[in-house]
């Protein structure tokens, strides 16, 4: 029997839900892998099938799990690159979506500035990794990104050449560091670009840029990454489907 360790005052399905999230966060089941059937979980935790189903339903509604008809229930892998296409136009000659090129400029370890430690829930001046990169489309820099990571969880990134890892960082986080991004919150603002980012984006100082601030979390809800992406306002768009 597998025991539940969360608050005994909570309903059983909630305690099981919390325990399953903890198991996913600890990589018992990886993104894209199937979890055991409700019957197997019921036997493992000595709970009714109805209680197990309610816990699984909660995780499906939260987007942590997904049901695939005839196959089972799987740990869902979010597609975060879709936010790029929601806010900016990256299209080829035929109108197809294209992931922009990633150019890593610097990777360094340093003490966290106060805003970074607050965003990531770290102690003041905790060690973090800062990545500065640009995203290019048709060799033109369209985004400049400053990315902050807790060093304790991403130490292995300092031992590899990130510039050789492809345009997407989240698969690298998972493959190299075992850290899986499960969810993210994004805030959209605008500002006049300063000298540093004007040079990176190849625009005049004080030009308008769109700023996308993202806080990414793991399956347990712990902050993993804080980034600020600045992009050309002329390429910005916002699209949402309302039904």
From TrEMBL:
Gene Ontology terms for molecular function: DNA binding; DNA-binding transcription factor activity
UniProt signal peptide: none
Keyword Transcription regulation: yes
Keyword vocabulary terms for this entry: DNA-binding, Transcription, Transcription regulation
Coiled coil stretches, renumbered: none
Record-level GO BP terms: negative regulation of DNA-templated transcription
Domain HTH gntR-type, chain residue ranges per copy: 10-78
Pfam families listed in its UniProt record: GntR, UTRA
InterPro entries in the record: Bact_HTH_transcr_reg, Chorismate_lyase_/UTRA_dom_sf, Tscrpt_reg_HTH_GntR, UTRA, WH-like_DNA-bd_sf, WH_DNA-bd_sf
Cited PANTHER family: MANNOSYL-D-GLYCERATE TRANSPORT/METABOLISM SYSTEM REPRESSOR MNGR-RELATED (PTHR44846), MANNOSYL-D-GLYCERATE TRANSPORT_METABOLISM SYSTEM REPRESSOR MNGR-RELATED (PTHR44846:SF1)
Full protein name: GntR family transcriptional regulator
């Amino acid at each position: 029997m597998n025991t539940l360790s969360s608050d005994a005052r909570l309903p059983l399905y909630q305690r099981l839900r919390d325990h399953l999230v903890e198991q996913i966060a600890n990589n018992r089941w990886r993104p894209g892998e199937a979890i055991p059937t409700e019957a197997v979980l019921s036997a493992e935790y000595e709970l009714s099938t109805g209680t197990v189903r309610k816990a699984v339903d909660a995780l499906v509604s939260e987007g942590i799990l997904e049901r695939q008809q005839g196959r089972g229930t799987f740990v869902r892998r979010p597609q975060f690159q879709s936010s790029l296409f929601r806010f900016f136009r990256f299209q080829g000659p035929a109108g197809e979506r294209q992931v922009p090129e990633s150019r890593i400029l610097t990777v360094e370890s340093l003490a966290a500035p106060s805003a970074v430690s607050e965003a990531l829930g770290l102690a003041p001046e905790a060690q973090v990794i800062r990545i500065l990169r640009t995203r290019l489309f048709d060799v033109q820099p369209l985004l400049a990104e400053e990315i902050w990571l807790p060093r304790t969880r991403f130490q292995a990134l300092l031992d590899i050449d990130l510039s050789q890892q492809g345009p997407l960082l989240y698969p690298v986080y998972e493959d190299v560091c075992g850290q899986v991004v499960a969810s993210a919150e994004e805030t959209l603002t605008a500002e006049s670009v300063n000298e540093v980012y004007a040079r990176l984006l190849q625009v005049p100082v004080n030009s308008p840029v769109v700023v996308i601030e993202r806080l990414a979390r793991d399956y347990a809800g712990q902050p993993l990454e804080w980034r600020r992406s600045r992009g050309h306002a002329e390429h910005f768009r916002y699209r949402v489907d309302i039904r």
